[in-house]
Please model this.
Amino acid sequence: MKNRIIRGSLSFIIALTFLIPFLSAICYGDSENVVLQADFENGSLEGMATMGNTSLVIDQHIAYSGSSCLKVTKRSANWNGASISNSSILQKGKKYKITAYVYHEQASQEDMKCTLKNTDSMGTDTYDNIIATTVPPSTWTEFSSEFSVPHDSSAATLYFEVTHATMDFYIDFVTLELIGDVEVSQAPENVTTGSEPKTQLEYTPPASMPHRIFFSDFETGTNESWGSVDIATLTLDYDHHSSGEASLQASNRNANWDGPKQFLDDYLKASKTYHCAVYVYHESATPETMSATINWKNSNGTTTYNSVASAQINPGKWTLLEGEVTTADDFNFPSLYIEASNADLVFYIDNVSIFSDEPLQNSNTGLNEKTPQNDEYTYGFESDLEDWNSRSDIRIVRTDEYAHSGEYSVYITDRDVYWSGLTRIIDFVDREISNTYSAYVMYNGDEYESSHVFNLNVQYDFEGVTNYQEVGIETVEKGKWKKISGEFTIPKGAKNVSMYVQTEKVDEGTETLDDLMSFYVDDISIVRTSVAKKKKTTMICIIVAASLFVISVITILLRKIILNAIKTNRALMSAALDAMTQTLNRNTYEQKLDILHEDPSICRGMYIAVCDVNFLKFVNDNYGHEMGDEAITRCGALLLRAVGKKGLVYRTGGDEFVCMSPVSFEEQIRHEIELEASKYNGYPFSVAVGFSHHEPGDVPDIDEMIEKADKAMYENKQLIKSQNAEFVVR
Model:
């Protein structure tokens, strides 16, 4: 009898466990006022997104109801968490009730909050803790409260956070219910509640482009999905407008190209011509050059920049920039951005229009239809680069010198910033589904430290902002392959998604030799996390079975180790530096020229110097060849000091040097030559030098730049000889 009672009780508990989600769906799921209900049972994020630098993962080891919940992990600040920010869910002027269950596994009680972040029509952010309570460990705790989104809201985000900045926590059974409207009397005075029509700018497009497919005038009280190219601050402005009552201000810019950016995936198609028009304004004391540009990427990830219009804009007057752009056949991820040549300029834009010869179609995305994601993607580079390419203007080479598996890997070299590395567009990856990303990394070389940190990252654009998510980080030991991996869920609505491998993040411009090291990458993979876990279990079984073949495996591994050791010795024997001057040698110079010939666009903004030691024959004949060698060494040393870490110095001949840099170094080189020449080491020391650089608008051509610098150097040498005839050997 007792056993029957126990069995009956257990059956009731099990049945109740399965009935809870079903009964909840009956109570809430069919209500027309429930705008969000997430129990995470279908394996997706169900409307939840990341808040800050964190990761959201569907977890099945603990749940409030059903078998799944949402795990918030990899947090780095107290406000990092899970959020609801969809404008169709959180509408201004509406009242809501939020109900959710939270859980943590810390040893002590933790302070947890549900916070409403609101951005008003002036771009000001406010934060309201609508729930704040202490949650005991290992106990599901209910969060429930009512809140309102103000009438002047331009963006609202509701998010869960924890005071403990790095702890993981869990969320389940999130329900958001619309319960009414905020009283109109609560609306600020500057909010329009009537139906008075807005004043529109009267602009007549070309007759061949009668259909306006995009328009942005900022009269909605929002940024209208405009984001910044870099770090520019974008705010709505009600004191300046070409028509209506508002415009968009760009301030706190970082560079000339920094400014407002609009993604155009849903508006532009490949191989079509569009007419673009935008009104711009500034209040500088002098005319300023401003431009509108449309860019896109091809299937290899290379970005093409296409000028719409550029003009001198007089201060205090709204001015029209307009022009036409024809898109390419190979066309992905288009965007429009507005810039100014003066990086400190604060400027405004209004009434941005794009016109076409045909109306906008619903299917007009500018991209190919997205096919469903496979469970697994692997890249071993055994046949080609498999659409992986360089991030920044660097060199990547498919090589059989080293490999983690198979015969080939990718070698990344000539890096110029810490974030330059190997990248690929992965827009095919499903949103709101957890994937595991991984890559194997290796480096070697006597000039590098014994270990270095590498990062595996995912980059994507979301609601007008470019996000950089660190997925994995590992310390890699020199000469050893190391796997970097991590889980990440791409939020719904993310665009322009790419994956890349780089060295550790440092302040740009402070990179050391190690931060710019060359390295190898192999066996990159993207696997659904659920599949990866099943594969891990299967792999354990395979390893047990494979123990029967240990002897044969050891033989194969020994052969591979010997081959890798031979290849390592060969690599170490291949030096890039000139032994006497410690500048780069002639062979490295020829390799650099090959790169510049292959991609002349790298020459844009480049500065060149050609240098030659004067009176070398006189010094050799009268003071000995040791003094002549010392003069060459002194020349190399002064050039290295002058050019610094941002540039390169090559010894191209006996006493001839070539310098390259993305920044001007003429003043520094002349100063170092003058300073070194003032030091008397027992023989006359002098260096002839000639300079050249790529002018904006010129066709980039490295041969012409070097020829120009060489000619200037020869003229300088002749002048020095005429002034020092006593040292000239005839």
